[in-house]
Batch of 3 targets.
Target 1
Amino acid sequence: MNGRDHAAGLSSRLTSTAAVLLPPLAVLAGLIAAWELYVELSGISRVTLPAPSRVLDAGFTSRDLLFDNAVVTLKEALVGTAVSITLGIVLALVIDAFEPARRALYPLLVGSQTIPVVVIAPLLVLWFGFELTPKIVVVTLYTFFPITVSLVAGLAATDREALLLMRTLGANRAQTLRLLQIPQALPYLFTGLRIAVTYAVVGAVFAEWSGARRGLGIYIILMKNSFRTDLVFAAIFLVAALSLALFALVVVIEKAVVRWR
Amino acid sequence: MFQKDLLFPWRNVLDNAALGLEVAGVCGRDEARRRAAALLPRFGLEGFETHHPAELSGGMRQRVALLRTLLLGRPLLLLDEPFASLDALTRRELQTWLRDTWRTAIGTGEHGTRNKQLDANLPDSPIARLAETPRRSEGALLVTHDVREAVLLSDRVYVMSPRPGRIVAEVPVERGPDGVTDALRLARAEEAVLNALRLQDVPV
């Protein structure tokens, strides 16, 4: 590829990125403008509903505090997701390898998703204290399911004739898994991971809700109790931004790893 | 070798061709790649080492699949309709290519010279071993529905009946003194195969 082609490719990529980002950003800008206008015209109390400009202003003033708390929440989300990935890979491999394991474990996996996390989160605090552990448990409960389920589907989706080819070549089980099934299932793993990371930050906030020393969840409670609705909103926007950033990170890694698609 | 090429989309041409050797563990991954790379020109794949299957034509993909099979060096090649999924023109091209490659590869081709490069890279292969013998087609069993393909590529054609599949006729394909089958001999063999099929009430 020569320089000009490269430049053309880059500019067309920028154009397509803009085409993806512009419509949602335009809608968002419209909503924020409507919100600002409503607060301005209705004269609503700023404790009940602060204008977006005020949220931005308050958020900027408290940026150090917001940042410190966001780092804590982000760490919980990342560690929880890492645990989920490990757990999900192990569970998926076991489920794929042994049919009895599939029958025994799959219903339990689905069952785990019916646990009302809001209710057991306080219990987790009771058992594991105010530190990192209960947060990781909550985030893992939220995120391991999509990872496990999509990876199981990916391993099971292996082309039957490709499996036959590996047998013809004399491959043993480990080789079939390493050379065929796992690379083949990678796009599925990333699909699950994309869903998982959007839950991760919210899960961490939820866990902090039930008891924490620091983090955006406990920060939101504290601000609400001191009638700083503007900072509650600022923290909420930060949670959304963190989730989007994690999602984007997964997409970037996926593009780098799954290059053949 | 199967109807579908079954190349792995995440492996490039070289790694796909080397897959069999890698699985068999007869040599390291680098050595497997080196052996595959040495044969790429003969398979019309030179310069495509790092291309992925999605970037190749159907004919090229099938050639990679054949190379993957050949590199294993098994005493007998089983080809199950290897060209069935290709379009008519590409199929013709690959049939001719396979015939010529096979003939020159076993060293009794037009020039009567053995392919040194091939020998060096397929030390234990049927091709290398067959090079010692004048007979060519001991090395491969081809299953096909294409009568023309059968007579073009084979020394001997066995016609099978539809359910239950039994061998009902054996048609030898004659070769000229130069080892090449001319159009007349091909036509004769083709006619014999078609007649055998008609006797089985196969509409041809």
Note: Strands of chain B lie at 77-80, 140-143, 156-160, 167-172.
Target 2
Amino acid sequence: MTSPIAKKPVSNPFSFKSIVDIGKKAVVGGLAGAAVKKAVTDGFEGAKAIGEKGLKGAWTAANKTAAELASNPTGKLNLLGKLKVAGGVLGTVTGLATLPGKVGTAVKDIREAVRTGSLGDIATAAQSGIAAAKGAVTTVKSALTTAVTVNKLSSTYKAAKLAFETAVPGASKAVTAAAAKAAMKSTFEGLTKGAVKGAATEAALLAAKEGGTIAKAVVGSAGRAAAKAALREGGKAAGEAALKAGAKAAAGGLGKAAARFAPGLNIAIAAFDTANAVATVMDPKASTGKKVSSVITAVGSIAAATNIPIVSQVGAAVSAVSGFIGSFF
Amino acid sequence: MSTRRYNPVWDFGTAGFVPGDTVTKSKKPSSKGVSYLLKMGPMGEALAVTPVDLPNVRAPSTEDLEVTVPLPADLTQDDLLRRFHELKRAHAKTRERAKGEAIAMGDDVQLDTLGYCGGKLIAFSARFGLWLELAPQLTLPGFAEAIAGEKLGDSLEIELTIPADYPVEALRNKPARFIVDVRAAKEVIEPDDEAPAFLEAINKGKTLEDVMDAIRDELEDELADQLTLEGQDLVLDALIERADVQVSRALIDEEVRRRWGQLEGKALVERGFDATEQQEALNAWLTDPLTRTDCERRLKIALVLKAITERDKLQLTPDKLEELATISAEPFGLTAADVKKGLRESKELTAQMAQTAWHMLAVEHVLSLASIKYEGA
């Protein structure tokens, strides 16, 4: 059985090497200083004090020790026990400042201050009293979010594979597939398991896990899943099976364990359509037409690799489409 | 190779592109409106009407189209536990926190975020209205912990070091700063694992063992769905290879630009991002390899499917559109009556849906001609 996967290097202007190059060019400057969280009753005052009097100006008697530790960049932070979390988190977060009542993302001065890391700039921005345009901020109505979607996994695997082939032309199929899977695994493993620490500590289930009960349950699951997929009808029904599979993936089910935040990684494209569909369906103000449209967009994106702003016309001449539309009204 | 021009028009009402010829004159943006848009910078360009050259593509052969879907890894124990955790959260009692109230780990929080590294905006760090379970994030340790204890309605500046094993190599071990606006929060009170009321509510069995077996069966069904879609993707990739279609860098740029406008640009403009900031955000999308590869693939698929549609004389009928829409809508809880009503609400919306349906029709057609086998089945 011949594999449909391209055997010749695919022209692709980007490779993993280029990711590193882009990263190297982006590293300019560095931290101008560390903003440290102080347990002051008014966080704004804390930021203001940092700007006016430097780091020590924001100390209170109770926080002096914490500040002393924080002023040493190689020392461990002890923000009143806040960051004492098992698992090596200590030392990862190097600073935290609070601007009470502000909408920081919507204030340019604050954005520029955070970009440069200048404490003085942050203090100035905080003092500037610029009213954030809260009214312009879009609100997502629904609490339902979607986890990593099927299409995202498969398309990213292929993207990683293409990039690898470009970087290492002539790599054997096995090596290519393994490298692409490793790249995809490292890309998404953290995303899909982001909040699992909470799940893994359910006491009753830990016992089941340690006792091997759950392990027995999952053995052979891939083969059973493959058999289920193979049993689905081929021929004309194959398309409907794929459409239904895509629709189920798009709907997500259960409002699965939150979306993922992964700066630098574009999970927004694949997740946006499904998240938008969920939000629109849940929005009591959305019209039925908008709901149906958002759902078809989401399913099309997953089940048929659509959602393309430019080339959205697979169909025949536009004039035929116009007549077609009229038949609904 | 000859080219054709395609003039999509941005429909402000539906915030999407519709075929230009189906938009009524009253909906077309005026020249004054376009000039205004162009002055807005990159977002304006993303919204403006610009003609696009599409390559002509010869429909590839669909003879002997055979693919084999590789066997995936088995489900893991953590997969089952994660789903159980989601069930608990879904059946938990929740309470909206008041403005000024402290947030706790385990809450569902809604955030607006921006991230900066090395003096530049981190690509795709601009997220607005993002709901998260506030729990330790393996990819970004410390991020959730820094938010816990803060107050609803505040804005935070979080500085942290990106871990050495972060998925994006260029960011590893780098210091980064995030602005995080805490927009909303819900206290989540999870039920007891073995409480009879909880087990009855989730309706998957009377004991935890029964529940785990039921979850495993569900996940296997979902895995089968994934394999079905992977088979479809392999068929589409095979067709792209046969057609040997090439799309220009400029076309991919335009595709990415318009996607950026839809998914990110609009939100940035609402937050007062000036042209320089917008361009920085857009450049991050334009230079992201996976984004470009994904957009290139979708462009190629659409072009190939269009050629096949024309060669094989496929025809979308109103009944077929309604059928495809009904199948798509069912998992979202929308009924056939909802679909019937929705298709008759607005000509522009229906035209958009019809375009997607044409694409789905073409995919259904090529899958009917393909042989998909599953390794390990």
Note: The CA atoms of residues 40 and 275 of chain B lie 7 Å apart.
Target 3
Amino acid sequence: MNMRALAAPALVLLALVLSQGTASAEYPTLVYYVTDQVGVLTSSEEFDIQSVCVEVYEQTGAEIAVLVVNTTLPDGIDMFAVKTFEQNGLGQEGEDDGLLILVSVEENAWRIEVGYGLEGILPDSKVGDIVTANLVPYLAVSDYYSGLYYTTYAVGLEIVTNYSGTPHTSESQYPIPWIPLKTWQLAVVIGAIVVLGVLTKGRAFLLWMLFSRNWGGGGKNWGGGRSGGGGARGRW
Amino acid sequence: MALANKKLYTITALIVILAIALATVAWLVLTYNSLVRENEKVDSQWAQVQNQYQRKIDLIPTLVSTVGAYQQFEASTLTNITQLRTQWMNATTTEDQVNVTNQLDSQLATIIVTYENYPELQSITAVRDLIYELTGTENRISVERMRYNEYVQDFNAHIKSFPASFVAGWGDFEEREYYQSPNAPPPP
């Protein structure tokens, strides 16, 4: 048996073992602004809430995420919120301007986790007041959409009004907004891809497929912000 | 010919020994620096825990004046809380501070229980806001404390692990203490 023939599978195996070891699958990965693990929101409702989050992000860079789960046990909603926030890194790094709206359906519990950078404009009592007015009355009648929409809107308004942050406008100078390349750069890249494809008789695309699996259909890249338990929690 | 070969061997051996020595020194420096960094992380995280304690203490005057207006809250609890605040401000050692805050926590818990038992209190904005601030501060403390313990765990594991334990022994790094809250189970 050739040692080289063994090396490749061994490396793959090693990589798998290592990635298993470091992956913390305990807390949900937030792919986009709204993550509904229970199915209490329709996709158009999710879209409505997301558009508020996008607006806030574009104007200030602050990242609001909404998460609906069945249960937060065994951690309890406070720890679950902090850990989820930390693992996903909501808000810009250094600015820590993220905010997580978490609803646990089976426990009838909610929690708003505020990033360090937003604690000044969203003190616990203000968050509590917003939720008392906008979330709790609707959750009590199982109207998750209204509750989450109004709450997202209310905190979003608070952020946009009182926090400047770093705007991330989508009216960018790039022809395709989510690819940061100017028109001529884009042409060069496309040209290179075509030439590479022709030269390798299509084999280059296999490589591309291998890499593109990691992108998983273009989710949200959270900024890497942190929180320290600020915010409010309660039940309905 | 044999002589030339021998010379070559000696030079190679010297280079190898030198490389190993250099690598060892580099490793020592890197390990030492990372231990210093981790140790400082533990210190600064402890400062973070204390900040949150201070925040809780700062909340007490408002608490007493707001909540004192409602007869549902026991006057003796409020007196105790005020006294504990004074004790905290006079406390000089970390141990004393931890001791006082533990007592304070049980008194504050009474306030929250009272609040939860009387729905009419929950409709008073001033009281409700205060309870949100109080529970929020409580939660901040437990988050910063958890992070403190995580950093301590990292550091302690590092100085005990082989071969970093040599550097730790030579650099006088000692195990850091976990913060244990009175109602939490002891670390495994």
Note: The longest strand of chain A covers residues 227-235.
